[in-house]
Design brief:
Rna Polymerase Sigma Factor, Chain: A, 186 residues, 8 helices, elongated
């Protein structure tokens, strides 16, 4: 179905393009949020990616790989967004799918905070490879193709990123125990 819709969008059919936007918005937003760690910037990046896709879709040659191409466009937009905002600091707002459901919610929150701190310390390239590989469950071959990088570079980025995340997870967090309850005098 997507190939037919993409072909129609390439011919300038705005209805077909709207269908692509509706069908792909959620997955592109999740990737942008994973890379940028900021809901507002992720929405801006997703919208800009769709604008770029609309502008370039008629010149795009490989109709069978629309998904990979759309990720490549989105990653380029995310990188440009971060470069444009040098003072950028990711927010800590969680998407509904990231809220801990563990019975030990305090422990889950501490672990998530450690992971988030480690994730923020990664370079944008390392964060991008982790998001594509682990969030989207892409093979490293697909990640390399999507990012238009050699397979060895994808392996290297993932390996270094995972080492950095492991190191961050081993560092003690600012608060590793629940706050003590204060006794109220009668």
């Amino acid at each position: 179905m997507d190939q037919h819709v993409v072909a129609e969008a390439r011919r300038g059919d705005t209805g077909a393009f709207d269908s692509l936007v509706v069908g792909h918005h959620h997955r592109l937003f999740r990737v942008a949020h994973g890379i940028l760690r900021d809901s507002h910037l992720a929405e801006d990046a997703t919208q800009q990616a769709f604008l770029d896709i609309w502008r370039d879709i008629r010149r795009w040659r490989d109709r069978a790989k629309f998904e990979a191409w759309s990720y490549r466009v989105l990653v380029r937009v995310c990188h440009a967004e971060v470069k444009r905002r040098r003072d950028w600091v990711p927010d800590t707002e969680l998407l509904p799918t990231e809220v801990p459901l563990a019975s030990d919610q305090f422990g889950a929150v501490v672990q998530r905070d450690q992971l988030e701190r480690g994730f923020r310390q990664l370079s944008l390239d390392h964060r991008t490879v982790i998001v594509l590989h682990h969030l989207l469950d892409m093979t490293l071959e697909t990640v390399a193709e999507t990012l238009d990088i050699p397979l060895g570079t994808a392996h290297s980025r993932l390996s270094r990123a995972m080492q950095a995340l492991r190191a961050a997870m081993q560092q003690p967090s600012p608060s590793t125990s629940p706050p003590a309850r204060q006794e109220v005098a009668p």
